[in-house]
């Protein structure tokens, strides 16, 4: 209407790290902003574009675009097309992918100098996002792939280590109570120096930002945790999740991420034939790889539990034609004949996880406790490691697995109590992302705050 000023949308550039557990949730968060009419650009490399090409159908492509920069394959000694942490199972290649991701600073800066945004939302793994924002004189928000509780816990350890630098906190063994945190949290062992050194760097990069984007909802992290973190660091956190709930239909859920190796129809048909809460879903993430010995123990444990299952085994992608001798290194003899079809499914590669988890037949989730899996399920590890490719010293026994599954799925009071708590958080998660919910309010407030920063107006 003539004479009425139309509010200018924000121009936002998202820079996800090159791993599915980072790209997928940050892509969904980018879609949240696009759905609110903001102009969003996701910056990635050519081989990783597939993680973002299937946005929710309700997202207007006018507001969400993809820009690719070449991955420096030659510089880091990798063949063309190997650009994601999900492309490898060995540490040397993953180190090269990490090195290549760090070299994206230059080409991304070149792009942004020609197409400057109002704000950058960058993965906390990248140390150079602060330099980009500083050079362009714009704010930037750091995306954390963890819950704020985890970030706050790590920050407490970092603060403790810096204050008590004369004592080597990391050399002690055994369990300990985390210092300087509101709740009494006991860890089973202290993190190794390699882990704490890396995490301290990431936390320092976070602190330089204008705030954290958290793929969680405030009710799960808890107001006490949020207040503690913001008070001790002076950094604002924005809970905008669970971002996966932006996917409403089975098709949208199935298209999230990479290409599935099992058809949606096959998976749904199998689940539809099962009773409610009768299926165990086993998946340890996209870049968590186990030895054949550990896979064998998992197979024995889930079979001994007597419950139906869907087991995602990315270690065996493309190995459907294994010989019997090769197969028997990780599967008990006759396992497939006894189980596959009526009692179970094995998926060798990418699976439509959100669709599976949201099905009524799924009653339990066995996972690696990665944050995306937890928040997607909203339903303990005993060994520290930086990534899922490292060789694990400990093997979880079939007896432990069998007992854990039966504890949750055999119909006892304890299992029902656990499932009841999961349902409670599921309901709270759905309310959080609906209009008037905590995550929805946070999104609208953040958009308003960023617009005021852009227009040089004081924040409330």
Would you give an account of this structure?
The chain is of the alpha/beta class and 460 residues long. The protein has 2 domains: 258 residues, 3-Layer(aba) Sandwich (Rossmann fold); 181 residues, Glycogen Phosphorylase B (Rossmann fold, 3-Layer(aba) Sandwich). 43% of the residues lie in helices and 12% in strands. The protein has 19 helices and 13 strands. The strands form 3 sheets. A 7-stranded parallel sheet has the order 3-2-1-4-5-8-9, sandwiched between helices. Strand 6 and strand 7 form a beta hairpin. Helix 6 crosses helix 7, helix 6 crosses helix 9 and helix 12 runs parallel beside helix 17. The longest helix has 21 residues. It is globular.
> Do you know the CATH topology of the largest domain?
Rossmann fold
Number of DSSP helices?
Answer: 19
By CATH, the architecture of the largest domain is named 3-Layer(aba) Sandwich
CATH class of the largest domain: Alpha Beta
Distance between the termini: 30 Å
* Strand order within the widest beta sheet: 3-2-1-4-5-8-9
Q: In terms of per-residue confidence, which ranges show pLDDT below 50 for 5 or more consecutive residues? A: none
Mean pLDDT rating: 86
The CATH superfamily of the largest domain bears the name Glycogen Phosphorylase B
Q: Approximately how much helix is present in the residues?
A: 40-55%
Radius of gyration: 23 Å
Q: What is the overall silhouette?
A: globular
β-sheet strand percentage: 5-15%
* Main sheet: strands, sense, barrel: 7 strands, parallel
How many DSSP E strands?
13
Count of structural domains? 2
Secondary-structure content class? alpha/beta
